[in-house]
Specification:
Number of domains: 2
Largest sheet: none
Number of strands: 0
Subcellular location: Cell membrane
Radius of gyration: 31 Å
CATH architecture of the largest domain: Up-down Bundle
InterPro entries: ArAE_1 (IPR010343), ArAE_1_C (IPR021062), ArAE_1_C_sf (IPR038323), UPF0421 (IPR052984)
CATH superfamily of the largest domain: Putative aromatic acid exporter, C-terminal domain
Protein name: Aromatic acid exporter family protein
Helix content: over 70%
Keywords: Cell membrane, Membrane, Transmembrane, Transmembrane helix
Number of helices: 12
CATH topology of the largest domain: Four Helix Bundle (Hemerythrin (Met), subunit A)
Pfam family, one: ArAE_1
Length: 325
C-alpha cells in the first residue's frame, strides 16, 4: 500500500485543525477536521480558491439557516428547505462544490435553540481554523522543476535527433520506408515530451502563488510550434526528398547546425546560410514542367519552414529567455 504526500497532508491537516479548535474550547471542534479535508486540493492556487469560496458560501449558508431554522420548527423540513434554496443559489453563482462544507456547519444549528450570534461566530471560527490549516499545509507542494527540466532535456535531445536525421536523409537522398518510420518515431517522441513538459509546467505554475515567471510555458509553446514546422518539413521529405534541388546543401546545413555550440546561439549564421540557399533557388531557371515546378516548390517550402523554426528559437532567446535570467 502506497501512502502519498497528499494523504499525509490530509491526515495532518485534519488532526491539527481539530486540535486547534479544541484548544480554543470551540463547540463542534471536530467539524474543523472534516472541513479541512475538503480544503486539500491538487494545487496551491486551487486550494486558495476553494477556501475563499467555501468561506463566503458558508457565511451565506449560516445566515440562511438562521432565518429558516428559526421560522420553521420542524427540523427535517427546515433543512430540506435550506438545502433547496442553497443549491439554487450555489448553481446561480457556480459554487456547487461548497455544498457539503456548508451543510457540515449548518446541521448542528438544527438542534440549537435558540440560534444566537455566539453559535454563529463559533461556527465561523471553526471554519476559519479549517481553512487556514488547509491553506498552510497546501503551501508545501513539491517542487516540480526537476520533472520539467527532465522533459526539457528530452525535448532538446529528440529535436536534435530529428534535425540530424533529416540532414542525413537530405545528404544521402534516401527514401526508404524504414528511414521515414525512424524519423516519424522520433517526431512522435518529441511531441510526447513537449506535451508532458507542458502538463508539468501547468501544474507547477498552479502551485506558485506569487511567481509570474512564464519561462517554461513559453519554452514548451515555442517547441510545440517548432514541432509543427518539423512535421511539415518531414511531409515534404516523404514525398519529394530525392527530387529536391540543392537537397545535399540543405542536409549539410542541418547536420552542421546540430554540431554547433548551442550556448553561443548558432542561429544567426545558419539563417544567413538559409537565405543564400533561397537566393540560389530563386536564381534557378524557371521550371519547364510540372515536375520541375513541384521540385523547386518543395525545396523552397522546406527552407521557409526551416527558417521559421529557427527564427522562433532566436526570438525566444532574445525576448523570453533574456527576461527570465
Amino acid at each position: 500500500m502506497r501512502i502519498g504526500m497528499r494523504t499525509i497532508k490530509t491526515a495532518l491537516t485534519a488532526g491539527i485543525a481539530m486540535a486547534i479548535a479544541a484548544a480554543l474550547h470551540l463547540d463542534y471542534w471536530s467539524l474543523a477536521g472534516i472541513v479541512s479535508m475538503l480544503m486539500i486540493a491538487t494545487t496551491t492556487r486551487a486550494t486558495v480558491r476553494l477556501a475563499l469560496f467555501q468561506t463566503v458560501a458558508t457565511v451565506v449558508g449560516l445566515v440562511l439557516a438562521w432565518g429558516l431554522f428559526t421560522w420553521i420548527p420542524y427540523a427535517p423540513l427546515a433543512f430540506a428547505v435550506w438545502l433547496l434554496l442553497y443549491i439554487a443559489l450555489s448553481n446561480l453563482v457556480d459554487l456547487q462544490d461548497t455544498m457539503i462544507g456548508s451543510a457540515v456547519f449548518v446541521l448542528p444549528l438544527l438542534v440549537v435553540k435558540p440560534i444566537t450570534v455566539a453559535i454563529l461566530l463559533n461556527q465561523l471560527s471553526v471554519l476559519v481554523i479549517a481553512a487556514l490549516t488547509g491553506l498552510f499545509f497546501n503551501l508545501f507542494m513539491p517542487n516540480l522543476t526537476d520533472q520539467i527540466s527532465f522533459h526539457v532535456e528530452g525535448v532538446e535531445k529528440e529535436l536534435i535527433t530529428v534535425l540530424r536525421l533529416q540532414g542525413t536523409l537530405l545528404i544521402s537522398g534516401e527514401t526508404s520506408v524504414e528511414a521515414q518510420h525512424t524519423l516519424w518515431g522520433h517526431l512522435s517522441s518529441l511531441k510526447q515530451a513537449i506535451n508532458e513538459g507542458t502538463a508539468w509546467t501547468a501544474r507547477h505554475q498552479a502551485n506558485q502563488l506569487f511567481d509570474d515567471n512564464e519561462y517554461y510555458a513559453a519554452y514548451f509553446e515555442m517547441r510545440n510550434n517548432q514541432y509543427e514546422l518539423l512535421r511539415q518539413m518531414q511531409l515534404l521529405l516523404d514525398t519529394r526528398l530525392a527530387e529536391m534541388p540543392q537537397h545535399q546543401q540543405m542536409g549539410r546545413l542541418l547536420v552542421d547546425l546540430t554540431k554547433r555550440d548551442r550556448k553561443n546561439n548558432p542561429i544567426p549564421p545558419v539563417l544567413a546560410a538559409i537565405e543564400r540557399l533561397q537566393d540560389d533557388l530563386a536564381a534557378m531557371s524557371l521550371p519547364e514542367t510540372r515536375k520541375q515546378f513541384a521540385q523547386q516548390a518543395a525545396a523552397t517550402s522546406y527552407l521557409i519552414f526551416l527558417r521559421q523554426m529557427l527564427r522562433l528559437k532566436d526570438a525566444f532567446d532574445k525576448i523570453v529567455a533574456s527576461q527570465n535570467k
